[in-house]
Amino acid sequence: xxxxxxxxxxxxxxxxxxxxxxxxxxxxxxxxxxxxxxxxxxxxxxxxxxxxxxxxxxxxxxxxxxxxxxxxxxxxxxxxxxxxxxxxxxxxxxxxxxxxxxxxxxxxxxxxxxxxxxxxxxxxxxxxxxxxxxxxxxxxxxxxxxxxxxxxxxxxxxxxxxxxxxxxxxxxxxxxxxxxxxxxxxxxxxxxxxxxxxxxxxx
Length: 203
Hints:
By secondary structure, the protein is an alpha/beta fold. Helix content is 23%, strand content 26%. The chain is globular.
């Protein structure tokens, strides 16, 4: 597992047509390289955050799931304008019944699981649909970011801790391969974003 690290001071990645984003002001897939070559692979964006089109532009068989019908409508319109194909599904983030077990190569959840009330169910479903050794990349607001300087908020109040997230992944049989604490700069004395690459273990 990679040691925790942040982006170089002041570094941001430009968002390009073909780059999966892990949040504003932090490096994207072009620098972190967590997904690898996804051309021809079935990849799900779990919660539409603008990445499904990037995945399709890179040659993936892009699939998007979101509980908000407006986001789905917007994505379909954007895909039509870009002449890209994205398979869209409406439902809660654990509603992965459209995907048979072991048929998905990668899943990306960029800032869609921060407030998910039933994280364990989502993780179980992602584990089910992934192929053996499939990749699951999660980006969330860094739990420390909620504890701002001078705030009376305590770490873990109203937010999952890092331990909560890592424990949930371990219980669902995901192995952590990379762990990035990002967003440190002149304006942020604690990381703003946590990005974790995991890989499915077991069946």
